[in-house]
Amino acid sequence: MTVTLPSGESVPALGMGTWMMAEARSSRATEIAALREGLDLGLTLIDTAEMYGSGAAESLVGEALGGRRDEVFLVSKVLPSNASVAGTVRACEASLRRLGTDRLDLYLLHWRGGVPLSATVEAFAGLVSAGKIRHWGVSNFDLADMRELVALPGFCQTNQILYNLSRRGPEHDLLPWHASAGMPIMAYSPVEQGRLLRSPVLASVAARHDATPAQVALAWVLRLPHVNAIPKAGTVEHVRENARALELRLSTEDLAELDGAFPPPSGPGPLEML
Ligand code: NAP
């Protein structure tokens, strides 16, 4: 299952997140094994950020990639406090060093800060020209931010936002806007950092398919053709379980039951962030 970017490139619909990895030395080998298992299973989109562990997550990803860099669609993010023209270039070069690579496939502005958007976009364009990033995009942008962004020169490839069964606000206006613009969104925290997995409704839907609540939560996010999901899983077992979500097709009955427990938005609301 793939998602097509505005560039025309297809990327795996299901990838892997890395926030909270590299926090404890004792779990390092387990986390690296989890990421490598994901690559073996085709989850070759990896999301990281300079913010995660103040660079430690990027270093861990670099180690996990080993000689496999070319298999991966690698995503990292610049902090808004670094997002000036010169600061973005410096931050990108530091991310590349930690990741042990010469290019990112996608570089995102982590969220909007005080730097004018035009400066960050100018820096992204320079990084593309220099071959240090292949594509760029944004994260945590609401509809007004996206409209402002697309009026600037250049081609944003995605908007990484909080989207899962318990965070359906973007369905009101942001997701329809993205669908009509032909630009995917990348759903972060797709299992609500584990909180969704305790839902009896997810357990009930999962039971009908001999599946698990995590697989239901991920299959629900992936039901839309222009949405990526990037769950973070710190163990090989969780990665294997999540990868099997790609085989799960939710029925009309499943979707109705999930709508009952997690209703779609009835009107506009601010974009939520974690
Ligand atoms: P998440 O992926 O919704 O949840 C991660 C949590 O769920 C971890 O505790 C993980 O535990 C657990 N989990 C995953 N698969 C599981 C399974 N099959 N069974 C049981 N537990 C499972 O939350 P997230 O990490 O916040 O979001 C995912 C990624 O999105 C992040 O890692 C990061 O890359 C990105 N993100 C971006 C932003 C942004 O502002 N752009 C914000 C938040 C997140 P284990 O580790 O024990 O497997």
What does this protein structure show overall?
By secondary structure, this protein is α/β, with parallel strands linked by helices. The chain has a single domain, classed as NADP-dependent oxidoreductase domain (TIM Barrel). Helices cover 38% and strands 14% of the residues. The chain is built from 10 helices and 9 strands. The protein has helices spanning 28-40, 56-65, 85-99, 117-129, 143-150, 174-181, 200-209, 213-221, 236-243, 252-261, and strands spanning 2-4, 10-12, 45-47, 73-78, 106-109, 136-139, 156-162, 185-188, 227-229. The protein has a 7-stranded parallel β-sheet, covered by helices on one side. It has a two-stranded antiparallel ribbon with strand order 1-2. α6 links the parallel β7 and β8. Residues 17-19, 47, 110, 139-140, 160, 188-194, 197, 214, 230-235, 238, 241-242, 274 line the site of NADP nicotinamide-adenine-dinucleotide phosphate.
List keywords for this structure.
globular, about 40% helix, about 270 residues, two-stranded antiparallel sheet, alpha/beta, 7-stranded parallel beta sheet, 9 strands, TIM Barrel, 10 helices, binds NADP nicotinamide-adenine-dinucleotide phosphate
